[in-house]
UniProtKB/TrEMBL annotation:
<dbReference type="InterPro" id="IPR030823">
    <property type="entry name" value="IolE/MocC"/>
</dbReference>
<dbReference type="InterPro" id="IPR013022">
    <property type="entry name" value="Xyl_isomerase-like_TIM-brl"/>
</dbReference>
<feature type="domain" description="Xylose isomerase-like TIM barrel">
    <location>
        <begin position="33"/>
        <end position="275"/>
    </location>
</feature>
<protein>
    <submittedName>
        <fullName>Inosose dehydratase</fullName>
        <ecNumber>4.2.1.44</ecNumber>
    </submittedName>
</protein>
<dbReference type="InterPro" id="IPR050312">
    <property type="entry name" value="IolE/XylAMocC-like"/>
</dbReference>
<dbReference type="InterPro" id="IPR036237">
    <property type="entry name" value="Xyl_isomerase-like_sf"/>
</dbReference>
<keyword id="KW-0456">Lyase</keyword>
<dbReference type="GO" id="GO:0050114">
    <property type="term" value="F:myo-inosose-2 dehydratase activity"/>
</dbReference>
<dbReference type="Pfam" id="PF01261">
    <property type="entry name" value="AP_endonuc_2"/>
</dbReference>
Amino acid sequence: MSTIKLGIAPIGWTNDDMPSLGGDTTYQQILSEVALAGFQGTEIGNKYPKDPAVLKPQLEMRGIRIAAAWCGLHLTTEPYKKVEKEFIAFRDYMAALGADCINVAEQGHTIQGSRDIPIFDGKPTYTDQEWDNLTTGLDKLGDRAAEAGLIIAYHHHMGTGVQTTAEIDRLMDNTDPSKVKLLLDVGHLLFSGEDPQDIATRYADRIGHVHMKDVRPAMVAKAHDEHLSFLDSVLAGVFTIPGDGATDYGPLLKPVIDAGYHGWFMIEAEQDPALADPFVQALNARKYLHETFGL
């Protein structure tokens, strides 16, 4: 357990898909509150400086660091060489910051940012050729990441072609375990109707990064019944922090811990900061991690 690091993502302060949420919040405030809440690190947010020479001193003076960051890919819709060029540029940025992991997610055909498409009714699927482009491309990008001392962890995500258990299985079965890890996001699994305990158990030795959030079941039902988009589901409060929902993370993550996991437990519960004070949420989440894992 001493090798597990604790972090919280900036998405609770300001949302990457809806920048108006927390639009007036500075990145300095986010970093300060991450540190003050007792976390060791964070992920990249849309407010953060793009120049490592500017961002690193801000991190260092607060005693925190960058753990990982989202990297959207278009392996199903664009030529591999174009995707690779963009990925290498981002990889080098992450390496300059001393990060550990790049959270990759296929964005070809995604509906996660479309407020006019219901998250369940409009979910995309991939053709066999698109699956092949995705999995072979991921293996290659895993090699490119390793060249800079980083790993890639695949972020299954609502509104994409890798959301369900069957889709996660297909991606895991058709990629090299030494090159492509899995990002376990409990909130997305619960929202989708999957069993996070099953995923955590079966892929315990392949988890590269963990996003920790819970769901509000009434809001999941609302998303189904009212045909909400992903973003409108977020605004309705579908996600919340661990400890504020019904999920017991102790037994859920035990298989991952027992498998020798040495990465990050990253709180990542996107909500409207006007309704869920980010600093209060950070403090409560940190308390939950201590009570549950002794960390």
